[in-house]
Write a structure and sequence with these properties.
Elements (H helix, E strand, L loop, with lengths): L1 E4 L6 E4 L9 H14 L1 E4 L6 H9 L25 E2 L16 H7 L15 E10 L7 E5 H7 L2 H8 L2 E4 L1 H7 L7 H6 L3 E4 L1 E3 L6 E3 L5 E4 L4 H15 L5 E4 L6 E5 L3 E5 L9 E8 L8
Parallel strand pairs: 2-3
Antiparallel strand pairs: 1-2, 3-13, 4-15, 5-13, 5-15, 6-12, 6-14, 7-8, 7-11, 9-10
The protein binds N-oxalylglycine and manganese (II) ion (MN).
Length: 290
């Protein structure tokens, strides 16, 4: 196993490792160290079915349940409750979705800069996204480096945000795009969550801004002022020199740490299938570091 940096101080490729087979604890520990160092890890040429992808994710933490699975009577394309369907495929036909499909509407929210499951408590930790089918062009995923963004902030701003918290909700980020079709059951299962604006990695001590499209306001601040602060921080973490753009190939698995990165999907010709499937672990820290 070797590491190859794809973006300075950020995204890193792991070369020469097949993650579809049971791996020794020492390899998982080395990968966790690499995630802590890089924020985004890329593996190419993998062969993973859904069960194997979930089993791999379990080595790093407890997978969370797919947010769309809480809707009564919903028919999902993928059987496992841990598997997030990031595809543009219809659950009934397997073909690209109709333009007004509800699943498509929810997934369009992925085009906004966000981090996964910031609207949950515990929040999302690691996301692992695997490519089964990709369009001939477009549909890349961009990642912003929220640690370097924090490091570059003026000292006064660092000090200001270290004591602030934001409220996050899935309904907020979808409402921004005009989508509000959530049932009472979904709203009850996915209440808003409050998290500090600054994250600290307990193993490395590195600080990061923690923001997302899901953040609706900053506690203790007028809504408008909080939203402007969130917009400024998002801009700081997504300056062109802090963004790694991943061009997907079938067989790619990308792992990112949601606590120190932002990401967004880019547009593509949706008449082509794009089948990406994600497992996200919860941020459950061992008692010794909590
Ligand atoms: C995700 C996501 C973006 C994309 O899987 O969490 O935001 O490019 N994906 O599909
Ligand atoms: Mn996402």
């Amino acid at each position: 196993m070797m590491f190859r940096e794809l973006h300075p101080g950020f995204a890193t490729e792991v070369v020469g490792l097949d993650i579809g087979v049971p791996l020794p604890d020492a390899t998982i520990a080395a990968l966790q160290d690499a995630i802590d160092a890089a924020g985004v890890l890329v593996f190419r040429g993998q062969h993973l079915d859904d069960d194997t992808q979930i089993a791999f994710a379990r080595r790093f933490g407890q997978p969370e349940r797919y947010v769309l699975s809480y809707r009564p009577g919903i028919k999902l394309r993928l059987a496992q409750a841990e598997m997030v369907d990031v595809s543009n495929l219809d659950a009934a036909t397997g073909a690209p979705q109709a333009p007004d499909s509800r699943h498509r509407m929810v997934n369009l929210g992925n085009r906004l800069w966000h981090t996964d499951s910031s609207f949950r408590s515990p929040r999302g930790a690691l996301s692992m996204l695997f490519a089964h089918a990709v369009p001939p062009e477009g549909g890349e995923t961009e990642f912003g480096n929220c640690r370097t963004a924090f490091d570059r902030l003026p000292a006064a701003m660092k000090q200001q945000i270290e004591t602030l918290q934001a409220e996050h909700s899935l309904m907020h980020s979808r409402a921004v795009l005009g989508f509000t079709d959530f049932s009472p059951e979904e709203r009850a299962a996915l209440p808003a969550a409050v998290h500090p604006l600054v994250s600290v990695n307990p193993r490395t001590g590195r600080k990061s801004v923690y923001i997302a499209s899901h953040a609706s306001h900053v506690l203790g601040m007028p809504v408008a002022e909080g939203r402007l602060l969130l917009a400024d921080l998002t801009e700081a973490a997504t300056r062109p020199d802090l963004v790694y753009r991943h061009e997907w190939k079938v067989g790619d698995l990308v792992i990112w740490d949601n606590r120190c990165t932002l990401h967004r999907g880019l547009a593509f010709d949706e008449s082509f299938p794009r089948d990406l499937r994600r497992v996200t672990t919860s941020d459950l820290l061992p008692a010794s570091v909590q």
